[in-house]
Structures are given as structure tokens and as C-alpha cells.
Amino acid sequence: MKKIILLLCVFLGTLYANNYKFANFYYKIANYEKAIEYIKKDTLNYENAKLHLLWGKCELGLGNTNEAMAAFERALIFDEHNVEAELALLKLYDESGRVELSESMLQTLEQEDISEVQKEYISKIQGRQLETYSLRALAGVGYDSNINVSADVDELNKYYGVGGNIGAESTLFGTVNGAIEYKNELQSKDEWYVKAKGNLFYQNNLDAHYYDMFFGGVEAGVGYARANYNLYIPLAYNRLHYLETDLFSQYSLNPQLTYALDQNFILLSNISYLNRSYLKAEYESRGYSAIGGSLGVYYLLENNFVYLNAKVNNHSSKTSNSGAYVSKLLYSLSLGMSYRVNEWLGSRVDYLYRGSRYEDSLLASDTKRSDNYNQVKVKLFHDFDENFQLFTSLEYAQNSSNYVPAEYRKYVGMLGLEIKY
Q1: Which InterPro entries would you find in this protein's record (predicted)?
Q2: Which of 55, 14, 52 is nearest to 36 (CA)?
Q3: What is the CA radius of gyration of the chain?
Q4: How many structural domains compose the chain?
Q5: Longest CA pairwise span in the chain (Å)
Q6: What percentage of residues in the chain have a pLDDT greater than 70?
Q7: Distance between CA 27 and CA 10 in Å, rounded?
Q8: pTM
Q9: For residue 127, what pLDDT is reported?
């Protein structure tokens, strides 16, 4: 008799465990009524927040707003830190005009440890007329194994046929950078806003001051945001001091569209135009204009995310007597992930591939120059609170080319502190 009871318990446990799996399957194929049937059968998992989260998604799929709210609220009863349920409720509260509940949910989310992309998504679904400021500052020290991005000295000597080439220079460095941003959601125009931003970057190289860099810029734009998308059109101006001279200035127009497919998937796309002018006579022939576009996707999961982005840019020389290797086609693919190991430690890994195909041929050859650039960056970080982050990072980059002087590899290690307000 005991064996029969035991087998019956195992059978019922398996049956109930499968209810959630079946419900999730029917949700994915958009058969929401069938999914809810299995959810209601899953009494063993009734106190599991993910069951009610799925229930809420199904009710949304059927257009049942009030039932969806109730399901997401139940999810928070069983897991008060369920960010996905909080985001879903925030959107529903805001769309239904439940202002006080929306405000309360925003305050709750501001205390959560969520990703930057999720924070940006929250700002898109607030639906409030706000005037906001934000500040970011970073200071760090590090080591660069090839600050002048030089090819191997032996390869350079062989290529030029003479000795005395310098090769890679390594150095310790210190860097500071920061940005301040102002945003105003226009009270007279629903969903419209204006934004302005200023940013600065400075790097001091202990053993190679010739390569010290100072970069600054300003940006201003207008945007339009609704519950699940945001269109922003900024115009920017930047200037670079490098190689002990005011090297170039540039302006760019960069319309950007962010679209939230649901609480987890966010699409990002943009088109861009850039015009760069070199400020000294000996560099003027290197000026160019560029037009391009990109398309990317983020997948958010609680405190973690993964992303994939593809980009294409076409550079065209601004002068008839162009410098060598100015006009080119660039295409790149970047991917990465951010993963919180535990409450104390977070991690991020990014990979970038960039291909460059030049219009110019190599010297004494009909072969056109072609480059392939690969970069891997690993970062570990600890958040003291929502405003302070201590991090360390290691980057490896390599450029392969059929033009020998353009080949190089380098390592960059860094330890820093980032502050956000």
C-alpha cells in the first residue's frame, strides 16, 4: 500500500511539474487560453512567482489588462524583487492612468540592482513630464602595451628596408572622463522631450606624453517616446587634441530608434552622418565624411543581459588630393554579455570584429588594402551602491592587414572607479 501511495505521489508531482512546461509551451505559440488552463491546474506551484508572471503575460496576450495586473501583483507577493513583474506593472499602471501606483513602482525600481538597459527602458515607459539631470564620472589607472599602435619593429625594418624604426611603446597611464546630461520632457507636447549632453575625456601617459589625449564634445537633440519605443535625433560636435596638437573637429547627426518588443527584448537601430575636418595644413587631406547605420538587439533577464549589434559605415574623402587610405568601407559585429555572479560581484565580456576595405591599393601593387580587427574585453566590477562602482578590466586587440605598418597587437589593463548620479 505504501508503495502505491509513493508511486501516486511521484506521478502527481510529475504531472503538476509538467503543467508549467505545457503552459509555457502554449504561451510561446500564442495559444494563451490553453496556457492559462494549465497554469490553473498547477496548484503545487501556486506560490511560485514565475507561474503568475507567465499568467500575466498570457492575460496581456488576450488583452485582459485588469487580469494581467492582478497576476503581476500576485507575482510580487511571492517575490517582491521580481524586476520583470515590476516593469510590467509599471507599464500597465502608467497606461491606465494610475499615477500614484506608477510613482510608487518607480521608487521601488530605483532601489533595485538592474542593468543600464533596463533603467533606460524604465525611463521610456514613465510617461511623465520631467526635468532631469544625470552625471557620470570615471577615474582610473592602467597599462598599455602599445600606446602608439605600432607594428613589430622587425617587421617594420624589413618592410621599409632600413633599421631604426621605433616599434611598440608601452606606458602606464591615468585617465579621467565624465559626462553631464540634461533632459526636459516638454509639458506642452505630450511624449516629446529635449536633451543636452556634454562629455570630456583625458588620458595622461606616464612614459609617452606625445600620445596624451584630450577629447571633448557637446550634444543636443529632440526625442519622442511612447510606451514601447523611443526616437531620439541628436546633433553633436566634438574636438580632439592629440599628438601635441589640436588634431580635428567633427560634427555628426545620429538618429536613434529604440523599440521594446516585450519586457525582455529590445531592438536598437540608427543611421548616422559624420563630417571630420583636420585642423593643421599637413593633415587636411585626411578629412572625410561618413554615412552608416546599425542594428542591434538586447535580451534582458533580471540583472543580466546579452546583446548583438551589426554596423556598416562608408568613409569618403572630402578632397580630390586625398591622403592615403582615407576612403574605405567599414563593417563591424559586436556581441557581449553582462552577468551578475553574486550580490558582491558582476562581470561583463565584450567582443568586437571590424573589417576595413580601402579604395587605395598597396604601394607597387594592384592589391587593395584590407584590415581585420579583433578585440576582446573582460571586466569585473563591484557596486558599493547605485552610485559607486569599482572595476578592473583587461583588453586584448589585434589588427591584421596586408599593409604591414598597420598590423599591431596590444594589451590594456585598467583599475578604476565610476560614479553616477
Answers
A1: TPR-like_helical_dom_sf, TPR_rpt
A2: 55
A3: 27
A4: 2
A5: 96
A6: 85
A7: 26
A8: 0.72
A9: 44
